[in-house]
């Protein structure tokens, strides 16, 4: 079992020793591309005993960050791997530190032959003196990343200028994607709100229309579900939650999908094709869908593709549930629904092994951010910390739900 670790780095001396130390003992080779670092990165790479191969970009080239574009940088690492021909490749960013309590080579040796790549959780660090509890009060900010794949001849990088996955664009031609929850990536970048705001501003300059990010704007993913022009609202909500000032919640109010089963497949907000007025939760087929709050069914209709749309009207809000039902339960107009009542179960979608629930909240006839609405009630509509869940069959995570306004 031979494991090759690879990464690119530009001015990473602050965390690079920790990154390299975490690879010792289970990586047989460590290859790095140093993109014109001007700090102590080069010296660290040459002095560390884990590093076996370093490629340096010419230092006389312009000192703009990341002179080597992402696709050529990935291709360079892939072709370096072709000389090594390892059993497994492990690729990370230079600000990600591996955390695990298991023997990684032994884990890789036990991966079924039909698995071509593995995803694992990426856990962000947080160290903001002004907002010390932003994580977890505003969300976990955790995600799944794909750092592991089996080496095969002919693997190639994606062609996007930015936001290609680390694993090759054609990796699924060689097998399915698995999950390694016992290996975690501690992401040491973006550990303050100011850093996240700066990253949003940077991406907006590079890609104003989010064309390189599958049409999904950069703000809400980096700013805990808030838009760039809602930063003051984010700060205000944080202060409220930190002080325990939550909106009133009736008995039985809950997240419509069990937290330990869900993944957020598509968030609320602007898209390249319009505005997504809800949040799409993904979960395994057979997962129950519950009423978040009580009310009377004002709308229940079958849509195209076998979808069921149910609207429950309460005293001050409406909640909307659109999903493909996996049972024959009947929901009729004028039915009284208590908070927490099971209103159906999810069936798998044609484009994924998961089921999807499109969930909206309307206040005074206008849709609002359902994640913010539930979280301000203290309900935490995200997966518990430490176990983010991938969306089956869609990478990057996205929902096949096409409800746009």
Classify the helix fraction into a percent range: 10-25%
* Low-pLDDT residue intervals, each spanning 5 or more residues: none
| SS field, number of helical segments | 9
Largest sheet: 9 strands, mixed
The CATH C-level name of the largest domain is Alpha Beta
CATH fold description of the largest domain? Spore Coat Polysaccharide Biosynthesis Protein SpsA, Chain A
Tell me the radius of gyration. Answer: 23 Å
CATH superfamily caption of the largest domain: Spore Coat Polysaccharide Biosynthesis Protein SpsA, Chain A
- Say what oligomer this is: single chain
Rounded average pLDDT: 92
Q: For the record, give the distance between the C-alpha atoms at the N and C termini, rounded to a whole number.
A: 51 Å
Q: Indicate how many domains the architecture comprises.
A: 2
CATH 2nd-level architecture of the largest domain: Alpha-Beta Complex
Strand percentage lies at 25-35%
Q: How many runs of DSSP E, i.e. beta strands?
A: 21
Order of helices and strands: EHEHEHEEHEHEEEHHHEEEEEEEEEEEEH
Could you say which overall geometry the principal axes of the C-alpha atoms support? globular
Helix and strand composition category = alpha+beta
